[in-house]
Structures are given as structure tokens and as C-alpha cells.
């Protein structure tokens, strides 16, 4: 029975999309790591709580197949804040620094790039040493 569970989890890992923009924070990557850690011995791994394992698989399979998205469709592709799906993706991708750069004014950006003194963070680190 453990072999069947192992194969089902492997199939789920293959189907689960991987988001390269999130680096180490991707749910697909996390899922693959957990399956590898749980089934260290492959098909011969003994599961201590088979019911919980099956329940976890079923839950993940429902999320992967968009059961809840189809059951509860959204009227609009924005949140209560008005942020679009693409803007959320950018925020969650880890490119916050890039967005901060965009929010700075042109003058401030140019002053930082062409300033002869080091940035404030570097000065504080040098003073601590």
C-alpha cells in the first residue's frame, strides 16, 4: 500500500507547477522536498499514519486540480485593494527591490548612482567595525 501512496505523490509532484520567480518560496518546490523527506526509502517507506497521509494527498490533489477555484469563481481578478493578479505576482516574486527602485524619483536615483560617498548602509557597517 505504501508503494501506491508513493507513486501517487510522485505523480502529484510531476503535475504541480513550479514558479521559478519565487526561488525557494515556491509551493511546488516545497512539496517536492517534503515528499522526498517523507518517502526516503521510496516505495518501501513505512507510513506511521496512513489515513493522515491519504487525507493530505487528497487535499493537495484538490488544490492542484482547482476544485475550489471552480466551486467558488471570482467575479473580478482583483482583490479588495484593487491590486491585479499580475501586480500580486510581481509583489510575491521577490522583486520588491525592483519596485522600490521604480518608486524612487528619477532625481533621487541619479543622485544615488553618481554620488561620491558610499550608501548609508555601507557607512554604518564600516563604523561598527
From TrEMBL:
<dbReference type="Pfam" id="PF20180">
    <property type="entry name" value="UQCC2_CBP6"/>
</dbReference>
<dbReference type="GO" id="GO:0034551">
    <property type="term" value="P:mitochondrial respiratory chain complex III assembly"/>
</dbReference>
<dbReference type="GO" id="GO:0042645">
    <property type="term" value="C:mitochondrial nucleoid"/>
</dbReference>
<keyword id="KW-0809">Transit peptide</keyword>
<dbReference type="InterPro" id="IPR037698">
    <property type="entry name" value="UQCC2"/>
</dbReference>
<keyword id="KW-0496">Mitochondrion</keyword>
<feature type="compositionally biased region" description="Basic and acidic residues">
    <location>
        <begin position="118"/>
        <end position="129"/>
    </location>
</feature>
<feature type="region of interest" description="Disordered">
    <location>
        <begin position="108"/>
        <end position="129"/>
    </location>
</feature>
<protein>
    <recommendedName>
        <fullName>Mitochondrial nucleoid factor 1</fullName>
    </recommendedName>
</protein>
<keyword id="KW-1135">Mitochondrion nucleoid</keyword>
Amino acid at each position: 500500500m505504501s508503494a501506491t501512496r508513493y507513486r501517487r505523490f510522485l505523480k502529484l509532484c510531476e503535475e504541480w507547477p513550479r514558479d521559478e520567480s519565487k526561488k525557494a518560496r515556491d509551493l511546488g518546490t516545497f512539496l517536492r522536498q517534503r515528499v522526498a523527506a517523507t518517502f526516503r526509502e521510496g516505495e518501501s517507506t513505512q507510513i506511521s499514519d496512513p489515513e493522515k497521509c491519504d487525507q493530505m494527498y487528497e487535499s493537495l490533489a484538490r488544490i492542484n486540480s482547482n476544485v475550489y477555484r471552480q466551486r467558488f469563481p471570482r467575479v473580478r481578478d482583483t482583490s479588495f485593494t484593487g491590486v491585479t493578479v499580475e501586480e500580486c505576482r510581481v509583489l510575491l516574486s521577490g522583486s520588491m527591490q525592483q519596485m522600490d527602485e521604480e518608486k524612487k524619483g528619477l532625481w533621487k536615483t541619479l543622485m544615488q548612482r553618481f554620488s561620491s560617498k558610499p550608501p548609508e548602509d555601507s557607512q554604518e557597517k564600516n563604523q561598527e567595525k
